[in-house]
Write a structure and sequence with these properties.
The protein has 274 residues and is an all-alpha fold. The chain has one domain. Helix content is 61%, strand content 0%. It has 14 helices and no strands. Bound molecules: zinc ion (2 copies).
Length: 274
């Protein structure tokens, strides 16, 4: 089973992505959480265009990606889990948790270090919040993130199948928790025991700084609970809160070409161009 998953990685990832995209698109149309304010056509071509650019960037810039590196580490006996005896299921679950915690810490770091924030803030300049916001990351951030993931794989030595599962889960949960879907409040409350919900992550996209400095998790909410970065709700409420960054309100910045140069834009100048 595990070898089958590794051999069919590409089709599994693409299939899971397409199914989730379809389900959430319909969900957002049927039961939207908030009305959208910017052009959906512009946002979708930009955000989905980035998915295409980022996939090619990773393929062309890295000789080997995290899954391939995990297979190599397994062959060469590199990393912790390749040198200790533990049942496969334990190694897979532990690897999923460590990788998810690493992504949480990386997200905190991208907010805290000014140079990294310049790259990551592009994710936050979306003026609306829907499933495509979860796919909106600068290509350089995607490359750095892959480098960090490969570093974690080198130290941890996770089973390659765990890395495939991790990538699929992260992609699916990122789309889900950015979606503009109205979940019944009791369902949201229940899901928050083990999953980051759209209402939980939306707080992270607030223009209010103390709110965007909370809820960093993408898949499980436990790291935010554990490290004290959890904030239950936005102070203005979900319907009235403003999404994005105060410094970049001009809709022209939603176009794909502006997304690439976002890290080089000066915030003060952007306010005056509105
Ligand atoms: Zn962020
Ligand atoms: Zn986000």
């Amino acid at each position: 089973m595990t070898t089958w998953i590794i051999h069919h990685e590409a089709i599994l990832r693409l299939g899971a992505f397409a199914v989730m995209l379809g389900l959430l698109t319909v969900g957002e149309l049927l039961t939207p959480r908030r009305p959208l304010t910017a052009s959906k056509a512009v946002r979708w071509y930009s955000n989905l265009g980035l998915v295409f650019v980022n996939s090619l960037t990773l393929r062309w810039s890295f000789p080997i990606l995290a899954v391939g590196f995990a297979s190599l580490a397994q062959e060469r006996q590199w990393g912790l889990f390749n040198n200790i005896a533990a049942p496969t299921a334990v190694r897979i679950i532990a690897s999923l948790l460590v990788l998810d915690c690493a992504i949480y810490l990386q997200h905190v770091m991208f907010h805290a270090v000014p140079l990294l924030w310049r790259l990551h803030r592009m994710h936050h300049t979306d003026l609306d919040y829907d499933l495509t916001t979860g796919l909106r990351f600068h290509p350089v951030e995607i490359m750095l993130s892959m480098g960090i993931k490969i570093g974690v794989v080198a130290v941890l030595g996770p089973p390659a199948v765990a890395v495939v599962l991790f990538e699929i889960i992260l992609n699916l949960t990122a789309m889900f928790n950015h979606s503009n879907i109205m979940l019944p409040l009791h369902v949201d409350r229940m899901l928050r025991w083990f999953l980051v919900t759209p209402d939980m992550h939306r707080v992270h996209h607030s223009v209010i700084h103390k709110e965007s400095d909370s809820n960093f998790g993408f898949s499980v909410p436990w790291w935010d609970y554990l490290f004290g970065t959890y904030r239950a709700q936005p102070q203005q409420g979900h319907a009235d809160m403003t999404i994005g960054l105060k410094e970049f309100r001009d809709p022209k910045y939603l176009h794909l070409v502006w997304l690439f140069v976002q890290p080089f834009l000066r915030a003060e100048k952007s306010i005056t161009t509105k």
